[in-house]
């Protein structure tokens, strides 16, 4: 649609129609220019232009409709118009319009006129474009004409030429035809392509519509989303506003604080300023002092150098003195060693009981316990903490011949004990017994000997002097010396503990008597002391191992044990003497001993019969008999029901009411138990005998342990005789005392065995049934 129609409607048709007229004229001109008359027009242009100029004035006075009418009607004018150039024609139209605009003064709106002018200009542009095309076409036609002319000339030449050339022409024609068919095919293909493209276009349309639909959907969701976002934005806005308010409050606070801080920092700054001034003055003062000090240090250096020289001289002097002191110290140590030796010799001469103290280590699982042992000296000093006491008494110092700490090995203990054991071969009686509370390591130290007392008798002949040597070694593993109140034993175990305690208190009595050098030593109060009589009083060498439990909970037991050991260490047995006798003397000694024992046994028999009398008259009460009245350190009551205690190695451990270590108390015990302790039940006695039958024999010869059957007594004749002698020596040789002998013969098992050279040894294994009671049969008899 023409845009001018839209703009001006029917009122403004006049310029449009004028333009249409002009256009049609131009179109006519254009059509005519394609024809062969173009050339005359262009050639005749100049003449017609002059003619047109002539008519120009009168045409200009006419209205537009008239002009077109004139152009149609007047053939001469028409020709002029046809022959006039388009530019001239348009100039005329312009002029007419301009004049009409001026003349009509508002009949034709200025706007329309202006647009008309624009249209005319556009036509002009087109016409100039068309003229360009015409020129080009003209040139093309000229070129074609020339080409055809040359072809015509060529064809004329060819026509005049031979028929072969005609054929060539025909061929060319055919080729042209073929080319034409190809072109047609190509066109068909292109048509097909167009169809395809149309189809694709249809598809694309469908896709576009789908996409549009999707776009609609997306638009919907987007709108929803944007709505939500808007709601959220509103909420967030509210929150933010709140926050802004809060921040504003904070800001106000912060401002206040800042102001305060500023004020504070201002005051601080002032203070620092003052301080700075102070420091500056102080630094000045210091630097002055430093200068002075430098000067002083220089002088001191000089003095030091001087002093160093003096000191080096003095050092040399001291070195010489020190060397002298070291020599003196070495001498002091040698003297100290000699003193120790001399002290030991004095001890030997006096016949003091040697006391070795041994502290067992904490057992596995006791690692967190505290120790009561505070100090172990190399010369036998021992400091023990006494938790029950305060102040000065909270520590107690003891001194013994030797103290073995928890780390001491069996080998170390044996090395120290070896010389004593060796002296048995020289005819000395040696007794080694271990004392201490239950579980303190007595058996461990006595090298796990399964029995309580092991006696080794060694007999030999000195080949040079023909003298007979008799030595005996008693190894005694005593029962635990724990208090009954601590053991909390009841029933059978309490009785057992009391019996065990008897033997320990009897031992205490003996040691107390020996320490007091009293005329009567109560050896016969227990089998233990009877067995040990030769070792405790017969100028024997006696060694006591005091075993200690390091646990602080056992400190009271430890203290009482050590007190007892202290007493024991004070006992002087007299210088040890070797049993080296001529044959005659020995026989006489044996006779004396035999007679002594017989007297003693007769006394005992009388005493027993005395006690038996009230029983026979119907009074059922305990009797006191030396043969049964003794208690011993170990009880082996096989077959008797008993509680399992803390014993190790199958031993029955006695937890006793009072430690025999406490000599003050032990005498009291001795009195009390000498009567009560002798009561033995028939059952216990039987059990004891049964056990003894099953017991095995251990043989020890120079530290070697041999075992043998109890029944297979393979002693040589001398050995057999020795056994009898030993029984006599121990005071059990009375043949009249049937019960006691049977008890001892079962209890003391011996075996002789050859040792090196002429020395024979007898080993005895002794068990003491503390709970064995007097058999009813014997009482009745
Ligand atoms: N020196 C030691 N080194 C390592 N363990 C030891 C030592 N002394 C003792 N023991 C251990 O401590 C425990 C108690 O020792 P032992 O049985 O010899 O005590 P005891 O005094 O003979 O006891 P009881 O009075 O009950 O017969 C045992 O397990 C033993 O192995």
- Strand elements, count: 14
Query: What structural class do you assign from the helix and strand content?
Result: alpha/beta
Distinct compounds present: adenosine-5'-triphosphate
Tell me about the largest β-sheet: 9 strands, mixed
- Provide a count of the helices: 22
Radius of gyration: 75 Å
Which spans have pLDDT < 50 for at least 5 consecutive residues? Answer: 1-60, 617-759, 767-781
Could you tell me how far the N terminus lies from the C terminus, measured between alpha carbons in angstroms? 167 Å
Helical fraction equals: 55-70%
Query: What is the strand content?
Result: 5-15%
Give the overall average pLDDT: 69
Number of spatially distinct domains: 3
- Which outline best applies? elongated
